[in-house]
Write a structure and sequence with these properties.
- The chain has four helices and two strands; from the N terminus they run H-E-H-H-H-E.
- It is mostly helical and 99 residues long.
- The chain has a two-stranded parallel sheet.
Amino acid sequence: MIGQTNYTAAKAGIIGFTKAAALELARYNVTVNVVAPGYTRSEMFDSIPEKTKEAILAQIPLGRVCEPEEVARAVRYLIVDGDYITGTTLILSGGIYMQ
């Protein structure tokens, strides 16, 4: 998206930092991961013009935005059951971004 260079650079920095921290902290049995939600229902998303929202939803294979509770469950999963997951980016995008 136009005008998002700063946002994109910040995200890339966080992902790079996470991978480096995961390598450094693994010897202490500390895991480090990124949870990267795509479009998520929020005040910010709700403020987007309706036509733009429709265009966004048309690009998401699941046809809806992420709910805040889904982000919370992803974080909880990493905390409770993610003992062997480290240096990973968990993308919650409904399929709009796939690696």
